[in-house]
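Lecture notes, unit on binding sites. The following record was shown on slide 14. It pairs a sequence with beta-D-mannopyranose.
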Amino acid sequence: MEKNTGYELFQRHPDNPILTVSSWPYRANSVFNAAAADVNGKILLLTRVEDFRGISHLTVARSDDGITNWQIDSVPTLKPEPEKYPEELWGIEDPRITWIEDMGKWAICYTAYSKGGPLVSLALTSNFKTFERLGPVMPPEDKDAALFPVKFNDLWAMLHRPVPRSSMLGAHIWISFSPNLKHWGEHQEIIQARQGGWWDANKIGLCSPPLQTKAGWLILYHGVRTTASGSIYRLGLALLDLENPVNVIRRTDEWIFGPKEHYEREGDVDDVVFPCGWVVKDSKVLIYYGAADSRLCLATANLDELVEFALKCPTP
Ligand code: BMA
């Protein structure tokens, strides 16, 4: 492997991949793109599991240290239910979890793969055993959504990534607001995919949910670079204004993490790192990411270093 002179803000865990189909209690093609939460001091991953039909569901894995001894539900935790929720016809994918203190519940934004394309659905839970579905909240095509944990001017806020019919227009990160989590409006595009040769040209999307820091909301996003031999998914950071998250105050120019190890470079989809969750423990951020759409990995970072780094980046 050539010397990589990229940033070293994220450190890969030496035991990567930390979860694979070999550790799964039932047959599965792949386990990847998990949401993450700290639930009573344990790390909970709501993992996307793809079966041998190609349809995904979500299953809970719990661990005391977030690295070893995973207790995995023996059957799918949240299965697509297309009879009741037709938008879940071709599966449910890529969840993001936000703790909503006001409600004492976890909110899960996930992709429901409908006949009309992928869309954003929302569910609430207090125990990760039973789930209250609020149904589709954004029409297709839209994915990579997560809620903010607090309201702004009495409205809930969600980041998401609609895709226009013409790929020439690019797929960008939007913010929308709601009084009740069900009805959404005040849609605004806030982070644009760049153009031309940039690593994040044409298509970007939110990764883990927005993380509140003193300097602003820390955003981890992916950029998709299209090449002759496929796409490369890499990660960048942005900071949004704490009071008014419509305002982007910083954005990294260079990517800060990308596929490098063999487990990220080769799999069902080569060259993909795709985090859907992160958890702050003391000053450390545990970033859980799907690698090559096949397995689950962990990288750690120092939260202060991430914020300091973002603060040195340009204001877009
Ligand atoms: C995106 C999503 C992710 C996937 C990625 C790479 O569009 O569908 O689930 O990890 O592509 O294939």
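Take-home: The longest strand covers residues 216-227.
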